[in-house]
Amino acid sequence: MAFQNYIFIFFLLPCLLILYTITPKKYKSILLIVASLIFYAWGEPVYIILLILLTIFNYIMALYMQKKQDRKRKYILVEIIVINLFLLFLLKLYMSF
Fold first, then answer.
1. What is the distance, to the nearest Å, from the Cα of residue 37 to the centroid of all Cα atoms in its chain?
2. How distant, in Å, are the alpha carbons of 42, 52, 71 from that of 33?
3. How far is residue 9 from each of residues 2, 5, 12, 39, measured CA to CA in Å?
C-alpha cells in the first residue's frame, strides 16, 4: 500500500492519529511500531518476519550499547550499521533475480 492510497489517507492515518493521542506516553512507541508493521504487512507481507527479527536485533543491540563505554559504542554502532546494510544488500540482490 502506498501513502497516496485513499484507504491509508482517509481511514488508517486518522485512526492511528486518534489512537496515538489517546495512548499513554509509555505505550506510544509500541503503538507506532505495531502500526508500522501492519502498514508494511498490508503492502508486502512476504518479508514481515525479517523486519520483525531485524527490529528485535536492533533493539537488543541498542540495549547492549548502553552498557558499554563510549569508545566501544562507536564500534558496536558501526557493526550494527554494516549488518543492516549487508542484509539490505542481500535482500535487494535476491529480489533482482
1. 7
2. 14, 10, 30
3. 10, 6, 6, 12
**Grid cell digits, residue 51:** 523486519
Q: What is the rounded distance in angstroms from the CA atom of residue 16 to the CA atom of residue 2?
A: 16
Q: What angle do CA 74, 80, 83 make, to 5 degrees?
A: 140
Q: Report pTM.
A: 0.75
Alpha-helical segments (H) within the chain: 6-7, 13-22, 28-43, 48-66, 70-96
In this predicted model, what pLDDT tens digit does every residue of 6-23 receive, in sequence order?
A: 777 888 889 999 999 999
Residue-wise pLDDT tens digits, 23-64? 999 999 999 999 988 888 887 788 889 889 999 999 999 999
Q: What gap in Å lies between CA 82 and CA 91, rounded to an integer?
A: 14
